[in-house]
Amino acid sequence: VSPRPAARRDHWSALGLAVLALGYLLAGRRYPLDTLATPGPGIFPLAAGLALLALAVWQGLDGWWRPAALALAVTAASRLLFGTWLGVPLP
Amino acid sequence: VSDLFVALTPANLLACFAGVVLGTIVGVLPGLGPAGAMALVLPLTIKLGPTAGLIMLAGIYYGSMYGGSTTSILVNVPGEAASVVTTIDGYRLARKGRAGAALAIAAIASFVAGTFSVVALQLAAPFVARLALAFGPAEYFAFALLGVTLLANLTGGARAKSLAMVVAGIMLSTVGMDPLGGTVRFTFDVAGAQAGLSFIAVTAGLFGVAEVLATIAAPADFAPVARVPFRALYPSREELRRSVPPMLRGTVLGFLVGLVPGPAATIASFVSYGVEKRVSRYRHEIGTGAIEGVAGPEAANNAAAGGGMIPLLALGLPFTPSTAVLLSGMLLMSVTPGPFLLRDHPQVFWGVIGSFYIGNVMLLLLNLPLVGIFARVATIPPRYLMPGVLVLCSVAAYSDNNNAFDVWVMVGAGVLGYAMRGLGYDPAPLVLGLVLGPVLERSLLQALTIGRGDPRELWSSAPAAIMLVATAVVLLAPAARAGLRLWTRERAS
User: Fold this and answer.
1) What is the C-alpha separation between B371 and B350, in angstroms, rounded?
2) Which of B286, B315, B400, B404 has the fewest CB within 10 Å, making it most exposed?
3) How many CB atoms lie within 10 A of CB B407?
4) Residues of A with CB below 8 A from B153's CB?
5) Minimal Cβ distance to A39: which of B163, B171, B445
6) Which residues, 6 or more positions from B475, have their beta carbon under 8 angstroms from its beta carbon?
């Protein structure tokens, strides 16, 4: 069954946003990130590009893919927060 | 208190009148913003002396807030950054034949908010200014982040789409020099892009040019509005009644937002619209042409203009480009703003405050009779009106920086805005991202530098932590609510 026109339109626009985000991230590679203590001009564009990519992926997903992606993102963020950064031993 | 009456001398009254008339014209015409206009007349005001000169400069500043809504309502082109939100309901009201009512409510809301902010400025200046100084980079980052998250979904469309547009706006704001180091980014060797994308060019394109393209694509949807009798040009009793609560809420919100550094009038109008969308009794109508969508934001941007005077007068700190020009004017006239302004120059301080009262009355008297003339613009057939809109947009885009590149930016933004309409994306969140992008970047990088790279600096103070938690709640609440609803339904079945 082909998706409804509105859903199909959203999928295509999500793909467009993802391409835009990837292009922006690629163009932003030429600006140094430096360190968090002395942040370079590339750090904020990197965060913005990744945010748009995540939102495009979120918009492009439907059905059970969305909760699956959310669960994966929360797990990865928790791993980074507790395991890598705060150093809390995880079971 | 007798110094307040200094504003009533003929020279000062004339300076006030000239200032508010100039300000209204600057507000009506997109392109030359209040800061630019104030800078242009600065040499003249120096000749007038400190009191009359500063009265004139201040008149341009708050007069532009009054005039900014006119083109937003009539032709969907915001005259000022702070009037972008007014296009959403104002233009729809104009299409319904209520342009006159929307313009009159905008003028009344501006008057109420302007007068309130003067009273508050007079009473609370020193206390509130100290409070505003407690905002450091971390607090401001959290505040801006909460703002974009809360306000992304202004018009009630799909949340992911609105957030994507905010981020796209933030990305566009990174074109040009980076705010801390001055590195030129994403210009692709185009000299005109080094100063960044002109805000005026982007908004003129997204709203004005997109409107022209939509009219060309579907002329039947844009039939001219029928002429209405003179009495019907003004707001009905029902419209006035409905405008009071949003006007009051917008005034208080706008005044408080005005105390915070950054593009306060623009943020205040967005905040007010977002609040009305949630708390108004008629919230289901907002976005379709509701008077609340005009009254709240118009009150908020005027109150923010008044609020922004507090840090300037009480502490000598300008938080917006317009108040920065005002500060230069004061310094050129040997008047140093700050804690000793009242002691050293009481006549200047109270004269300017007194002129605010008079200026607000002048603006109301000036704007209300013009409503009938302006409202007739909405009745012009699109085949005559739209070329005019295109010229207005091009002049606005070009005159912002006298740069032909900005005209191309406007054309690009127009095509983008038209495509966004077709795909169900709202341009307002993109504009919000464009405005708040530099604020977010600057405050984030400053906070990280202060914390020597430790991200915990971002939530080291209680207000910042509370605002970041609120941001997380706002982001996750819809998903949690949907999950809870699903769980309840499954349990019930």
Assistant:
1) 32
2) B404
3) 21
4) none
5) B445
6) B149
Interface contact flag, B183 A41, Cβ < 8 Å: yes
* Most confident option among A30-39, B117-126, B357-366: A30-39
- The whole-angstrom separation of Cα B493 and Cα B478 is 23
The pLDDT tens digits for B331-364 are 888 888 776 777 788 888 888 888 888 888 888 8
Tell whether pTM > 0.90: no
Torsion of CA A44, A49, A53, A56, to 10 degrees: 100
CA angle B361, B362, B363 (to 5 degrees): 90
Residues 383-442 of chain B whose Cβ lies under 8 A from any Cβ of chain A:
423-425, 437, 440-441
Rounded CA gap, B108 and B360, in Å? 10
- Closest CB to A41 among B181, B454, B455: B181
Residue window 47-86, chain B: list those with CB within 8 Å of chain A. Answer: none
Q: Do B423 and A9 touch (CB under 8 A)?
A: yes
Measured in residues, chain B has a length of: 493
B14 interface with A at CB cutoff 8 Å: no
Whether complex ipTM tops 0.95:
no
